[in-house]
Amino acid sequence: MKILTAIGILLGITLLGLSLKVLLFPAHVATKEIQMAYDITDKTLEAENAIYNYEWFKQQKEDIEASRAKLVVAENSIDRFKFDAVNREHWTFEDKTEYSRLNSIAQGLENYLTQQIADYNARAKMANRNIFENGLLPNFIDATTMLLKK
How far apart are CA 57 and CA 46, in angstroms? Predict the structure, then answer.
């Protein structure tokens, strides 16, 4: 009889523990979410992290400007080549190869520039990055205006 009572008490305690766990699970999840939000805020506001993020945005903006300048040079090279070799009907194999090479370079630079802009914009949209944006750095770079010929 004592064994049955002990087993009953043990089962009762186990079931009570499981019931409490099920009932308190939503509160546990909410507490974890709140703690995670505080952790993100703390990490975002750390001086080292703030400096890193500002430097990343600044460097990326300069890299985008440099890539844009390279793309303009590549497009000017294509225009100059087409101007110098006016009559396409008489282009040699070497002329066609050079024209293709120049176009490939320009297309590669354009693709790279587009990816740089996408990376910048994606990071700028992250909620914990907004505090790093100031008047010196844009929070969005428009790829369509960046890729237009100047």
Answer: 17
pTM, to two decimals: 0.64
How many Cβ atoms from other residues are within 10 Å of residue 30's Cβ? 10
Nearest to 143 by CA among 63, 78, 64: 64
Count how many residues are written for the chain. 150
Map residue 141 onto helix, strand or coil.
coil
Count Cβ atoms within 10 A of the Cβ of residue 127 and give its class: 0-12 exposed, 13-18 middle, 19 or more buried. exposed
Gyration radius (Cα) of the chain, Å: 31
Place of tokens 């590669």: 108
In Å, what is the CA distance from 16 to each residue of 20, 29, 73, 98?
A: 6, 20, 74, 80
List strand residue ranges (DSSP E) for the chain, in order: none
* pLDDT digits (tens), the chain, 150 positions: 778 888 888 888 888 878 878 777 777 676 777 767 666 666 656 777 778 888 898 999 999 999 999 999 999 999 999 988 878 888 999 999 999 999 999 999 999 999 999 999 998 888 566 555 566 777 778 887 777 655
